[in-house]
Amino acid sequence: MGSKSPEQDGHRGHDAQSCSTKGNNAGGEPRGAHLSRDGDCSLGDEDGDDDDDEGAATAGVENHVCDGTDKATAQLTSEGASKKKKRKKSKKKSSALKQSSPPRIPLSDLFPNGQYPTGEFQNYPVVENTARTTDEENRYLSRQDLYDETFFNNYRKGAEIHRQVRHWTQETARPGSSLTDIAVGIDDGVRALLDNAGLEPGSALKSGLGFPTGLSLNNCVAHWTPNPGQKEVILDRSDVMKVDFGVHINGWIVDSAFTMSFDPTYDNLLAAVKDATNTGIKNAGVDIRISDVSAAIQEAMESYEVDIGGKTFPVKAVRNITGHNIKAYQIHAGKSVPFIKTKDQTKMEEGEVFAIETFGSTGRGMVHDGPGVYGYGKSYSAPSKISSSLASARSLYKTINDNFGTIVFCRRYLERLGVQRYLAGMNDLVNKGVVEMYEPLIDTPGSYSAQFEHTIFLGETRKEVISRGNDY
């Protein structure tokens, strides 16, 4: 989930085009999502050696009978081997549990030992003439009580849920699908694998969606989700769709995104953004200046161009959205990772979690607020209680505290809880400044954009790309 640059917050676009508006069909035959398919849903290989051993044991009994040994004893031995064989088959069958489609089997059932797969470990780039300052050391020490094995295992569990749900999305989201069906399928998959429906007060604060599932098309760069009352949007073969969703456990969010297209016209656009994200991950590390990471991202991104409808467009790094660090229940925790070179000397520090994401566009490379509402988020500094003349505002604020806290949510999630007639109360909370409203972010009409994103943890000697999968 990208963070918009602060200097752009006051700019509101008046473009009448919806974020779901389609660009001109650039031609070409649909060929599915141009992503390598994720194999993470297969949980281990089946071993057929037991059958061979059992066959050998039975053959041994038969040979023993042929040699003239007591037939009654041999028969008992044969029956015993047969019963043992049946028991082994039953045991083997129970160990073959795999994820369903759509994904509905809780991850704890697939990993009964409670240990979840690690992400990709990468060594740090060599950094010369750098040393951690006293203030950085103090901040590092204050974080260490959080990063124990339970913390890592929970983060890896969230990442495995993300991999399995996105694998299903990549296999099933096709032209002709409604964006509501895709978004609800992702939401339901995450909740099912967490084994937490999130309907009881406080339950969604323990685990759930990290933010509203984003399905942004074409020139809508980010922050669009289907909500009640909107006209249904159907995915077209000419669309470029950014899929951005998060999984949280105890407030720590796995923030990861990818892009799907069904026309090879946009292959270079997707390749540019994927390369930029991987370049950002490669260059990130302890004591690394964020400006150096940003410069490397921009160089990788803008080395690509894409041909659309006979015209060549350079791929531009979007200038006013950024990656970000993550803290518990805080998706944007203060540090930003732009996609363009800056003079900011802020450094990444040991023990920090970052969402390394990049957006590339064939348009201006600048976003502004589009029509509609993506979601809402309670301000991190908001009080626990508010005074309001509207009973609906007071009731809604309690619902937000009980179910979301500072986790960003959307109208779809409110109505799933049975909340009704909330718009007046929500407007009051937004006007009071205790809840922030997020709009879709759009670029030039007719342009196309792509996004790839991973969550990484900066350890003492190496970094872990927590959300890495076989797909990207």
UniProtKB/TrEMBL annotation:
Name of the protein described by the UniProt record: Methionine aminopeptidase 2
Record organism: Aspergillus steynii IBT 23096
Magnesium recorded as keyword: no
Comp. bias regions, Basic residues: 83-95
Chain intervals with Acidic residues compositional bias: 43-55
Region of interest: Disordered: 1-126
Top-level enzyme category: hydrolase
Family: Belongs to the peptidase M24A family. Methionine aminopeptidase eukaryotic type 2 subfamily.
Pfam families: Peptidase_M24
Binding residue positions for substrate: 223, 332
Keyword Nuclease belongs to the record: no
Gene Ontology CC annotation, any one: cytoplasm
Role summary: Cotranslationally removes the N-terminal methionine from nascent proteins. The N-terminal methionine is often cleaved when the second residue in the primary sequence is small and uncharged (Met-Ala-, Cys, Gly, Pro, Ser, Thr, or Val).
Annotated compartments: Cytoplasm
Binding site for a divalent metal cation 2: 255, 324, 357, 453
Gene Ontology terms describing biological process: proteolysis
